[in-house]
């Protein structure tokens, strides 16, 4: 039997809706119907459909308008236009607009069956293509580091160069910017990729425990040392050690690590026998270490030892153009994880999210999207889904009449998927006036 | 299986040889193990004739049968001499709604020679029985089957229908058994 393909029939004639409904139901598909374009869009808001059969002639929103909206908002949904003999030009227009096929009424039953076979084959190829594209993206990008902004492009460019050397790296940047991901990417691109990558957060481990974790200990070296244990500096052998929050370690630990970096050997606690170690050190901090040298007594010699190559990861507020891309990535990730199809953020919400300062950076954005997806009631996330973020009002002062008009026109255009005829009708002005206003305010459609 | 609960009526519209309804009833009994009875023939359904298309509206006929005949048996299969249509299809050979109580089949495109006949050929009777069994199984909730060796496989033409055996795949057979429990 057919996998549960979801089909919607959109036709203002009940007899056609019912007949096609029963035909598809007999064929084993999940079927729903809508009597108008608006009803269809409303259903699409909450429920994704794979294939839609849309009658071209309907009162209100016609089939072409509905097709345009579906293609701009839900490009994965395939649309088949149903038209009568004599309106072949409309069918051609529909094909140019993105319809997958068209049916001229009345058609033979086996023709509908053939169209379905063709569409399902097309759908299968598309999903295979998407799967392979996804795989390719995963291979070509640096794990989950996502960005298209100039600073991120610079980072992508420099990672392979850093990976090629074996020098110590210091990553700086605010919390949540993705320092560990960059460290992993450097490791993955380096000759050490087949050896371990060990990450330790120095800020979360007490100094005495950190020493034992890094250097290991001999049985009986201290009260709780019930057995001999290798330290991470030994375990990481051949690989990369990532020390996050390096600015938090004590002066003694700085001296110990400095010695290890210079001599490439360690001694376990309670032992005197030196052990050769081979690892690359990548450190990270959100502190200004140069200032820490001056004020907190951070060791200058240790700083220069760990800071052979310095890479600063910019905060999210300095690369706002990455926000839509990151949102799309996290929507996809959490839609898959939660098995909920939430694949859009409304234009207005996107603008507000871009304006938000994101003090917790990418991590905060990811958490916000995860929470919004889990609680979402529709496929498109709106401002209500991000109420927990306490996004400040877009304007502190009262907007001008001109600003309000501009915002309202943009909102209506987005709701109508930039269908000028519909938007003009909704605004109660003619198309020419709307075009003039679009030019005057330099309004642009959101890029897909 | 409770025979009282699963009685299928077979009726014909207009002047169709009795043998056709009898063959259909016999196939229903033989292949599906249901009680099948021949009901009194009905008048030609002129109310369902579309004068422009010169075809009978399958939807209107099913509605009529629901009102008039559903009480005479658990499920009813009607046999019509004329050509059937749905608004968007050029024609249909048979029509039944999944889980419904009435189904209709047309002999028009199942004939070997054009025009009504007093003595249908063996091929025509076999085609009629196949369509009747297919539509009746829709009434019992079965959907189209991917197997080309199953009577529930969709056949878009008479040539396709002739290729199908009078048999069900094991999945459809099981589904049918479950649906009459």
List keywords for this structure.
heterodimer, A: 448 residues, alpha/beta, Rossmann fold, Helicase, Ruva Protein, domain 3, 4 domains, 5-stranded parallel sheet, 18 helices, 48% helix, B: 181 residues, Collagenase (Catalytic Domain), 5-stranded mixed sheet, 3-stranded mixed sheet, 8 strands, 34% helix, globular
> What is the CATH topology of the largest domain in chain A?
Rossmann fold
Morphology call of chain A: elongated
Give the strand line-up of the largest sheet of chain A.
2-1-3-4-5
Number of helices of chain A: 18
- Multimeric status of the protein: heterodimer
CATH topology of chain B: Collagenase (Catalytic Domain)
Q: Total strand count of chain B, please?
A: 8
CATH architectural grouping of chain B = 3-Layer(aba) Sandwich
Termini distance of chain B?
6 Å
Strand order of the largest sheet of chain B: 2-1-5-8-7
CATH superfamily (homologous) name of the largest domain in chain A: P-loop containing nucleotide triphosphate hydrolases
For the sheet with most strands of chain A, the description reads: 5 strands, parallel
Determine the structural class of chain A based on helices, strands and strand pairing: alpha/beta
Mean pLDDT of chain A: 86
Low-confidence stretches of chain B: none
Number of helices of chain B: 5
Coarse morphology of chain B: globular
Largest interface: A-B, 26 and 25 residues
């Amino acid at each position: 039997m057919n996998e549960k393909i979801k089909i919607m029939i959109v036709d203002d004639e009940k007899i056609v809706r019912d007949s096609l409904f029963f035909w598809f139901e007999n064929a084993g598909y999940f079927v729903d119907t809508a009597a108008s374009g608006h009803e269809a869009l409303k259903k699409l808001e909450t429920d994704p459909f794979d294939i839609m059969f849309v009658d071209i002639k309907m009162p209100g929103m016609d089939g072409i308008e509905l097709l345009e909206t579906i293609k701009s908002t839900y490009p994965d949904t395939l649309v088949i236009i149903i038209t009568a003999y004599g309106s072949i030009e409309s069918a051609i227009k529909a094909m140019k607009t993105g319809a997958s096929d068209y049916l001229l009424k009345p058609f033979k039953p086996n023709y509908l069956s053939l169209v379905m076979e063709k569409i399902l084959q097309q759908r299968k190829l598309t999903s295979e293509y998407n799967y392979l594209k996804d795989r390719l993206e995963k291979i070509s990008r640096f794990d989950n580091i996502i960005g298209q902004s100039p600073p991120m492009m610079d980072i992508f460019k420099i990672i392979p160069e850093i990976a090629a050397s074996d020098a110590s790296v210091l990553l700086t940047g605010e919390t949540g910017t993705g320092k560990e991901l960059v460290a992993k990417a450097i490791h993955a691109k380096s000759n050490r990729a087949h050896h371990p990558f060990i990450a330790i957060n120095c800020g979360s481990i007490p100094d005495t425990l950190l020493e034992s974790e890094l250097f290991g200990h001999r049985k009986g070296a201290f009260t709780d040392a019930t057995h001999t244990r290798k330290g991470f500096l030994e375990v990481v052998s051949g690989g990369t050690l990532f020390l996050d929050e390096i600015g938090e370690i004590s002066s003694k630990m700085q001296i110990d690590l400095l010695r290890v970096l210079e001599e490439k050997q360690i001694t376990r606690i309670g032992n005197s026998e030196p052990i050769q170690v081979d690892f690359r050190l990548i450190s990270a901090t959100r502190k200004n270490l140069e200032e820490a040298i001056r004020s907190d007594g951070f060791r200058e010699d240790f700083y220069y030892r760990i800071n052979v190559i310095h890479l600063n990861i910019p905060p999210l507020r300095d690369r706002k153009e990455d926000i839509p891309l990151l949102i799309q990535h996290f929507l996809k990730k959490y839609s898959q994880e939660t098995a909920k199809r939430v694949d859009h953020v409304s234009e207005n919400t996107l603008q507000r999210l871009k304006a938000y300062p994101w003090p917790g950076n990418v991590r905060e954005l990811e958490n916000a999207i995860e929470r919004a997806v889990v609680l979402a009631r529709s496929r498109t996330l709106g401002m209500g889904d991000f109420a927990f973020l306490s996004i400040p009002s877009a304007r502190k002062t009262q907007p001008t009449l001109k600003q309000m008009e501009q915002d309202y026109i943009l909102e209506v255009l987005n709701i109508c998927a930039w269908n000028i005829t519909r938007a003009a009708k909704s605004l109660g002005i003619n198309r020419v006036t709307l075009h003039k206003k679009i030019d005057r305010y330099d309004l642009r459609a959101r890029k897909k | 299986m409770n025979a009282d609960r699963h009685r299928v009526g077979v009726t014909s519209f207009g002047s169709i040889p009795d043998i056709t309804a009898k063959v259909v009833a016999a196939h229903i009994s033989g292949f599906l193990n249901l009680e099948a009875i021949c009901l009194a023939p009905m008048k030609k359904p002129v109310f369902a004739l579309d004068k422009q298309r010169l075809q009978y509206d399958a939807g209107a006929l099913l509605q009529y049968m629901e009102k008039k005949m559903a009480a005479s048996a658990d499920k009813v299969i009607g046999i019509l001499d004329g050509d059937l249509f749905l608004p968007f299809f050029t024609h249909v050979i048979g029509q039944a709604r999944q889980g419904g109580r009435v189904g209709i089949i047309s002999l028009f495109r199942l004939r070997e020679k054009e025009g009504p006949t007093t003595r249908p050929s063996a091929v025509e009777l076999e085609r009629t029985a196949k369509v009747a069994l297919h539509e009746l199984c829709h009434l019992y909730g079965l959907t189209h089957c991917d197997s080309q060796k199953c009577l529930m496989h969709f056949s878009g033409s008479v040539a396709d229908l002739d290729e199908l055996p009078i048999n069900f795949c094991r999945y459809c057979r099981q589904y049918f058994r479950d649906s009459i429990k």
